[in-house]
Design brief:
The protein is mostly beta strands. It has an 8-stranded antiparallel β-sheet. Strands 16-17-18-19-20-21-22-23 form an 8-stranded antiparallel β-barrel. Helix 3 packs antiparallel against helix 5.
């Protein structure tokens, strides 16, 4: 029996929608008409976002061969951007018949140098001459490793910046970016004595200014879907991390990370509840919208709140140990912000959740924490360990975390094993703590 099973996968905020049609002629016609009408495609396992509009499929491969006795089929489609630019490798859809009209579909799509593989189990029902989805059960996704090393043309994010890599035949990699109209560039040479390590050349060249003139070495990490370049100074302190795992542009990544650091539930000095979400602030029963104020795409830490309340206007959001302090500000013609004197203190109101819980979920290479006092940084760093039940020797840390509902001490510290992201955040915070006070810009009071 020969069947055509045509599948279109659309990820929207981690949700998968599938369309199917049969027989062959009707299926192909359905797909072509569907794409003529237009579709937005959003891959979003948090870091992956890609949009395809009405001309998303420039070409749909004509070779459909589903004449397999075992019910297995493979369809390969080549996707294009609206402008007609090829966006990557072929997308593979493998369909295995489980039983009756139940199928397991494996979708493998290009993810940087690797593949993102997603599996879904679904059932079909026949309506006239066509097939429709009756049941659907996603079975999760994973990163499938493909290529090692730094890829030529790959993008690497740090703060709001996007660096692009250029590789020569000797595997020397030059990274270049634009920052407020200034060209930045630095060069990595492979360390012949250490695998996945590079020497950061302290020279300047015609591609731009080198922002990393003092660090000694760079370590390439590829693990659990991460592609990272960790930049260490001569003392072994982690100075910066370039993230090659992001698909979104630098300014979007930076805004998402900063939002994650200020969102949560708080109360004002008079016990008025305040909840900060991704683009909304709820004060009592009043919903207000806000947006980030940037300067040349860089995060300023200032948010603009709309709505006719005392919170309307521009506020500098300063993360503190107890919550967030909002300082009313105005911006001058040069882009600088001046505090006007008014401030609102928002107190963290979740004793059942770590104050800096985002440090276990977000890679803090935006380094917004550099504005915190060292005493706050110490709590933040140790809180990452406390989440895993670490038993502290210092009496002040013992007392601090013993008052938290979420803290459950482990039987032994030997079982405490932070994840890669958490380990790197601990290193970044340690490096900031090691800086002399005169070299730091602290806004926390």
């Amino acid at each position: 029996m020969k069947k055509l099973l045509c599948l279109v996968f659309i990820f929207v905020a981690s949700t998968l929608h599938v369309w199917a049609s049969s027989p062959a002629d009707e299926g192909k016609s359905f797909l072509e008409s569907f794409y003529k009408e237009g579709v937005e495609r959003d891959f979003s396992p948090s870091f992956l976002k890609m949009y395809l509009t009405k001309n998303a499929v420039k070409y749909l491969q004509d070779s459909y061969d589903y004449d397999n006795d075992d019910g297995t089929a493979m369809a390969i489609w080549l996707f294009w951007r609206e402008a007609g630019t090829d966006i990557g490798a072929l997308k593979e859809f493998k369909v295995d018949k489980v039983k009756d009209n139940t199928y397991r579909v494996v979708c493998r799509s290009d993810f940087n140098d690797d593949f993102y593989q997603y599996t879904v189990l679904f059932g079909l029902t026949r309506i006239g001459n066509a097939w429709a989805i009756d049941t659907m059960k996603p079975e999760g996704g994973k990163i499938v490793s493909a290529q090692q090393g730094i890829k030529d043309g790959s993008r690497w994010n740090v703060r709001s910046l996007d660096y692009f890599a250029s590789c020569d035949e000797a595997n020397v990699v030059t990274f270049h970016a634009m920052n407020e109209g200034e060209e930045l560039a630095f060069r990595l040479t492979p360390d012949s004595n250490k695998e996945d390590e590079y020497v950061l050349t302290d020279d300047s060249h015609d591609k731009g200014y080198n922002p990393y003139s003092t660090p000694a070495r760079v370590k390439y990490i590829k693990n659990d879907g991460w592609k990272l370049l960790c930049i260490y100074d001569k003392k072994g302190l982690l100075q910066d991390i370039l993230d090659g795992s992001q698909y979104a542009e630098g300014p979007i990544v930076a805004q998402s990370k900063w939002t994650a650091q200020i969102q949560g539930k708080y109360i004002t000095h008079n016990n008025e509840p305040v909840e900060i979400g991704w683009n909304k602030i709820t004060i009592g029963a009043i919903d207000l919208t806000y947006e980030h104020v940037t300067f040349n795409d860089m995060i300023t830490g200032v948010i603009k709140i709309d709505g006719g309340t005392r919170f309307q206007g521009m506020w500098e959001a300063v993360v503190t140990l107890d919550g967030i302090t909002l300082y009313k500000v105005e911006q001058d013609e040069y882009g600088s912000f001046k505090r006007l004197g008014d401030k609102e203190k928002l107190i963290w109101n979740r004793n059942d959740r770590p104050r800096f819980n985002y440090a276990c979920m977000v890679l803090l290479n935006d380094k917004q924490f550099r504005k915190m006092k060292k005493s706050t940084l110490r709590i933040m760093r140790n809180e990452i360990l406390a989440v895993h039940g670490y038993r502290f020797q210092s009496e002040d840390l013992q007392h601090y975390f013993s008052t938290k509902e979420w803290y459950q001490p482990a039987e032994s510290n030997s079982t405490v094993k932070p994840y890669l992201l958490e380990q790197l955040n601990i290193e970044l915070i340690k490096a900031e703590e090691a800086k002399p006070d005169e070299d730091r810009y602290v806004t926390e009071e």
